[in-house]
Each structure stands twice: as structure tokens, then as C-alpha cells.
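User: Please fill in residues for this 193-position structure.
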């Protein structure tokens, strides 16, 4: 079956958004250049405006994609572990604070990768960033059905902050030990399963 011009444009658009989703997590908002994203997507800079009205429009879509990809990874891990009787909360904590998440900033949670820069963005990007934070808190809340609502925010902040501090220390024994201590503490405090 031959591809229609529209489907080629949609496929190209998706490649650009995927490249930008990796780039914002790897380099931060300021490190996302249109030319670099287009090059990583295998395209020329000139085709950018056929897909996006502005760089901010690209960043908003990339942030949403990054969040979806990160959540998909956690949900996949949760499904595999739920079959073994592990609680959803414990699975979330262990997946988020995993050594592989420490090492994979360009495919991990965009809130942890971009948190400190979120308030410095344009209104559209700040709005998309705030939505991503709310979705993270909601995801945590869904694993804590019997805890007070405020607990989800505390846990989300602990997850993000721990990952940021571990990344600042480095993908080494000290960084991994920080993740391990936080995993143990959160599971002891909040896991009711």
C-alpha cells in the first residue's frame, strides 16, 4: 500500500517530536535547537515550520511525548511486577528510582530532567510543564488509594528530588546508594500491600 503525502508528513512530524523529546531531557530546554533536532530527525532545518509554528510549540509537544514515554516505561514495569504480587506503589518507586533511570536521562522522566528550569520558560511551556508535574502527582496518587491526598505530592517530590540529587552526584556507587536509601524509605513509609 502506497503512503499518502499526509501519512509521510505525520511520520516526519513524529520523528521530529521524538528527537526533541530526547533532546529536552538530555540538554534541557535551552539546549534544544531547532537545527539540531531536525538534524537528529534526519531532516533539514528548512522543513521545521511545515510542522510547527514555533520552537515553543515543538517543546510543548516534546514535553508531552517525553512524559508519555516515561509513563509507558513505568506502567510496563508495573504490569510485569503486578503479576508477581508486588504493589503498584512499590513498583512505581522501584522503577522511578532504578539505577537505569539514573543513567538514562534522555529517556527518563522529564520532570526530573527539567524541573528547575520549568518556571523560567514561556507561558505555553510553563503550562505544559505544570501539566506534566500534575500528571506525575496523579500517577503517584493512583498507587496510594488509602493515603491522604497530600502524600502523593510529597512522594512525587521525593522521587524527583532524589533522582536529581543522584544525577548530580553521578552514575556511581554514591548516586546509586542515594536511590537505594530513598526506595527503602518510601516503601517502608507508604507501601501498604
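Assistant: Residues filled in for all 193 positions:
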Amino acid at each position: 500500500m502506497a503512503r499518502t503525502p499526509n501519512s509521510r508528513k505525520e511520520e516526519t512530524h513524529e520523528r521530529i517530536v521524538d528527537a526533541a523529546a530526547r533532546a529536552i531531557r538530555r540538554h534541557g530546554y535551552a539546549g534544544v535547537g531547532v537545527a539540531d533536532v531536525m538534524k537528529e530527525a534526519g531532516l533539514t532545518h528548512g522543513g521545521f515550520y511545515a510542522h510547527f509554528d514555533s520552537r515553543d510549540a515543538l517543546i510543548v509537544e516534546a514535553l508531552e511525548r517525553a512524559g508519555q514515554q516515561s509513563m509507558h516505561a513505568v506502567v510496563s514495569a508495573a504490569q510485569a511486577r503486578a503479576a508477581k504480587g508486588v504493589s503498584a506503589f512499590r513498583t512505581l518507586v522501584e522503577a522511578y528510582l532504578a539505577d537505569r533511570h539514573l543513567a538514562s536521562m534522555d529517556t527518563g522522566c522529564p520532570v526530573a530532567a527539567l524541573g528547575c528550569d520549568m518556571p523560567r520558560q514561556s507561558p505555553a511551556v510553563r503550562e505544559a510543564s505544570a501539566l506534566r508535574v500534575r500528571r506525575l502527582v496523579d500517577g503517584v496518587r493512583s498507587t496510594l488509594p488509602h493515603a491522604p491526598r497530600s502524600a502523593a505530592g510529597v512522594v512525587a517530590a521525593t522521587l524527583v528530588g532524589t533522582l536529581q540529587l543522584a544525577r548530580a552526584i553521578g552514575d556511581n556507587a554514591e548516586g546509586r546508594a542515594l536511590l537505594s536509601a530513598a526506595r527503602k524509605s518510601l516503601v517502608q513509609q507508604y507501601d501498604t500491600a
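For context: DSSP finds nine helices and no strands in the chain.
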